[in-house]
Specification:
- By secondary structure, the chain is α+β, with helices and mostly antiparallel strands.
- The chain has 3 domains: about 50 residues; about 160 residues, Efflux pump adaptor protein, beta barrel domain (Elongation Factor Tu (Ef-tu), domain 3, Beta Barrel), CATH 2.40.30; about 180 residues, Helix Hairpins (Orthogonal Bundle), CATH 1.10.287.
- Helix content is about 55%, strand content about 20%.
- It is built from 4 helices and 14 strands.
- The strands form 3 sheets. The chain has a 6-stranded antiparallel β-barrel. It has a 4-stranded antiparallel β-sheet with strand order 2-9-7-4, with no helix packed on it.
- Strand 11 and strand 12 form a beta hairpin.
- Helix 3 packs antiparallel against helix 4.
- The protein starts with a helix and ends with a strand.
């Protein structure tokens, strides 16, 4: 404005363009910083948007929790038999191999028990062998006795039949024949005696000759003698009947005796069964003694306590001279090569989670992240599996988000890189896609 006053009106047209040029320069100077700021704001906003989008995409398919820890097999080693500790062969935090002796008990009592069991086994085997020999021997003796008894019975029955025939003959035909002879001789004797009695008075009167009388007398004497002989034969026949009857009774008695022998022989066959049962019992005793030997052998082996798995010894609670009981804990072996992660995720995080998904585990001890995958998801919440599960039926229920254990298996980790021990705290992340 001061310029315009000094030059006057005639120079106004010349001065005015200068003022416009100055004004344009000032406007240009103001517009340029505003454009740079706008451009920077646009680029910055785009970068922030890209960053937010990237973070959203990154965390959208990831579920994480810091309620996680390393788990493993905690193998407690205990004594299986009673005894005094003779040697302790392992130290705390010492690596051991499966089958490596850790503790030795005084095994003298178990060695003596094993020797005694072996002796009883040898005795039982000897008795079983003897019983096995007795069975065929008894069978042969019984078979021989049965055959002999059968033969004796057949012989006695044959003798009885012959005696019965002889008795029947003596009682019927022989006795009847002797009786007939007696009757005949008696009749002849009577006739001869009658003739003699008739001839006697005739002889005295001389009516007959002496020769006739002597003949009649001789005939009477002969018939009397024949009668006496026939009577004796009859008596002998009666005695024969009694003798054959006695013989028949004796034969029948022998038959009964033979029958008793057959019955006894058949009863003796039960001895074979008894011998077989005795042999079976002794064989069973052999098996029992073998089991006793195996049990004694096991007890002797149990006196040496070995590592059940490869691992590291920890929590040692045994010393030399200590008397331990069966089931008493002595130490713990932890296999550090076989560990996993148990991550307790909220139930709201399990919607897209399933077995086989990739996982990342950051270990607090090392500050490193290790890869793995989801092995399985527990079938119940940790609260339900706790010692005192909550009771929601008391009327004062408060809804609390529950946590469910998820087992994550880690990819092999070189020992020189890291050693994970059960109980370590970790942060687990599962990539749900």
């Amino acid at each position: 404005m001061s310029i315009e006053i000094e030059v006057g009106l005639e120079n106004a047209t010349k001065v005015k363009p200068k003022s416009e040029e100055i004004r344009l320069d000032e406007d240009a100077a103001v517009v340029q910083p505003q454009s740079n700021l706008r451009r920077n704001l646009i680029f910055g906003g785009a970068a922030v948007a890209v960053l937010v989008a990237g973070l959203f995409i990154y965390f959208f398919n990831r579920e994480s929790t810091d309620d996680a820890q390393v788990d493993g097999h905690i193998t407690a080693v205990s004594a299986k038999v009673y005894g005094r500790v003779a040697e302790v062969l392992a130290k705390d935090n010492e690596p051991v191999k499966a089958g490596q002796p850790l503790v030795k008990l005084d095994a003298r009592d178990y060695q003596a028990a094993l020797d005694q069991a072996k002796g009883q086994l040898a005795l039982a085997e000897s008795e079983a062998q003897s019983a096995g020999v007795d069975v065929p021997k008894t069978r042969e003796n019984v078979a021989s006795g049965t055959s002999s008894a059968d033969a004796q019975l057949l012989g006695a029955q044959a003798d009885a039949m012959r005696a019965e025939v002889t008795y029947d003959q003596a009682k019927t035909s022989d006795l009847a024949w002797a009786q007939a002879n007696v009757d005949k001789s008696r009749a002849n004797a009577r006739l001869a005696q009658a003739d003699l009695e008739r001839f006697t008075p005739l002889m005295e009167k001389g009516e007959i000759s002496k020769q006739q009388f002597d003949a009649a007398k001789a005939n009477a004497d002969a018939t009397a003698s024949a009668l006496t002989a026939d009577e004796q034969k009859f008596v002998q026949a009666q005695r024969s009947v009694d003798i054959t009857k006695a013989q028949l009774e004796a034969a029948r008695a022998r038959v009964q005796q033979a029958q008793a022998g057959v019955a006894a022989a058949k009863a003796d066959t039960k001895q074979v069964s008894m011998k077989q049962a005795d042999a079976a019992a002794k064989i069973a005793k052999v098996q029992q003694q073998r089991a006793a030997v195996e049990a004694a052998q096991l007890n002797l082996e149990y006196a040496t306590i070995t590592a059940p798995v490869d691992g590291v010894v920890t929590h040692k609670q045994v010393e030399i001279g200590q008397v331990v009981q069966p089931g008493q804990g002595l130490l713990v072996v932890v296999p550090l090569h076989d560990v996993w992660v148990t991550a307790n995720f909220k139930e709201t995080q399990l919607k897209k989670m399933k077995a086989g998904q990739k996982a990342e585990v950051k270990v607090d001890t090392y500050g490193k992240t290790f890869s793995g995958h989801v092995d399985s998801i527990a079938s119940a919440t940790g609260a339900v599996l706790s010692l005192l599960p909550p009771e929601n039926a008391t009327g004062n229920y408060v809804k609390v988000v529950q946590r469910i254990p998820v087992k994550i298996l880690l990819d092999p980790i070189p020992q020189e890189k890291a050693v994970l021990r059960p109980g370590m705290n970790v942060e687990a992340t599962v990539l749900t896609k």
